[in-house]
Amino acid sequence: MAIPGLDDLIASGLRGKRVLVRADLNVPMAHGSITDDTRLRASLPTLQRLREAGARVVVTSHLGRPKGDRKAEFSLRPVSKALADLLDAPVAFCEENVGRKPLEAIAELTEGQIIVLENLRFDPGEEQNAPAFVRSLAELADAYVNDAFGTAHRAHASTAGVARQIPHVAAGDLLTAEIEHLRAVREPARPLLVVLGGAKVSDKISVLDALAPHADTLAIGGAMAYTFLAARGVAVGNSLIEPTAFEDAKRVEALAAEAGNKLLLPSDHIIAQEISAESPTRIVEEIPKGWMGVDIGPETAERYKNEARQAQTVFWNGPMGIFEIEPFATGTRSVAQGLAASGGLTVVGGGDSLSAINGLGLGDEIDHLSTGGGAALEFVQGLELPGVAELER
């Protein structure tokens, strides 16, 4: 279905109107400082266009998981300051997210000004999609823009509930781009390569089940590859495995085989005895007892890169090893370079994969960097995302 976009909303006339923007300002923080501003930068185009249209822009978001409690470490105040620096424009901040204070603060805004409201999840009504909280949010605005793809899979007050209460709604530029590129993974130019990494099969079993018969090639890395290998009866030493997921792994392999698709697993490994940068490493084809797999090996990395070079569509989610530790980052780095060199459409989702791409300075070489890890996985499976469904409705 067609989703109303920002062009249509702006064309309707927004000068002086209050526009509630559900942005994704959920950035990683350490000691009160932002460690990665990717999501802030991704929000800028929509905010800038609304400013230029003369709207009074009211930005809402969550940060972290305060679970309904007001916790200082999850305040959006420092995020609002960072947003002001990126926009090179003043950004007001309100310590409340609904009620009298934000209503009064919004009334004082002039055309083109922005205000950030305090963390939505300080109020339990946000995650509960509570009717009273939804109504309070709706009172703040004349129009609503959802630009937070990272939370579009949640039926929360700010992502689904409020869209039913405000008559004029639209998808922001970021949300529109996310849907466009991820739809191209769901309905791909072939061959389609999906590269999945991460720790546990159980965390990604639904996406594995969905993509095994859909992707021409499914390449698996990270610790979950060892569950697949162990399920085949391959010795994996002391590598992290999930014995309770062996049957799931066998089913995923069977689904790929029935569809005539390839499922690739590591044929060589970088191993260590401890998860430490100081631990000696070896490259092996078989993992001995007392050692654990910490990364895919160079032969496997080259095989995955070759698949990327041949694919017309590539989707990557999850690291190939414990990439935060430099000696264990080679496989993740190689896959990132393979995607950057691919001539097909490339889409990367998930925080760790984005960190790897950005850390290597390859962001400009990827067609789309998805800001929504969980939402992206659900979308490519064909699941309905409440935040998107409400805009379609």
Describe it for me?
There is one protein chain. This protein has 16 helices and 17 strands. By secondary structure, the chain is an alpha/beta fold. The longest helix is centred in the N-terminal third of the chain and has 15 residues. It is 38% helix and 17% strand. The strands form four sheets. A six-stranded parallel beta sheet has the order 5-6-4-1-7-8, sandwiched between helices. A six-stranded parallel beta sheet has the order 11-10-9-15-16-17, sandwiched between helices. The protein folds into two domains: 172 residues, Rossmann fold (3-Layer(aba) Sandwich), CATH 3.40.50.1260; 154 residues, Phosphoglycerate kinase, N-terminal domain (Rossmann fold, 3-Layer(aba) Sandwich).
Principal-axis shape? elongated
- Overall SS class: alpha/beta
Kindly state the percentage of residues in helix.
25-40%
Question: Which CATH class of the largest domain applies here?
Answer: Alpha Beta
- Average pLDDT works out at 94
Assign the CATH architecture of the largest domain: 3-Layer(aba) Sandwich
Biggest β-sheet: strands ordered side by side in the sheet: 5-6-4-1-7-8
End-to-end CA span: 9 Å
Number of domains: 2
CATH topology of the largest domain, by name, is: Rossmann fold
Total DSSP E strands: 17
β-strand amount: 15-25%
Give a quick summary of the entry:
This protein is α/β, with parallel strands linked by helices. It has helices at 6-11, 38-52, 77-87, 100-107, 124-128, 131-138, 157-161, 173-186, 205-211, 224-231, 246-258, 298-310, 330-340, 351-359, 373-380, 386-392; strands at 18-22, 29-30, 33-34, 56-60, 91-94, 114-117, 143-146, 168-171, 192-196, 217-220, 262-264, 269-272, 281-284, 292-296, 313-317, 345-349, 368-369. The protein starts with 5 loop residues before the first helix and ends with a helix.
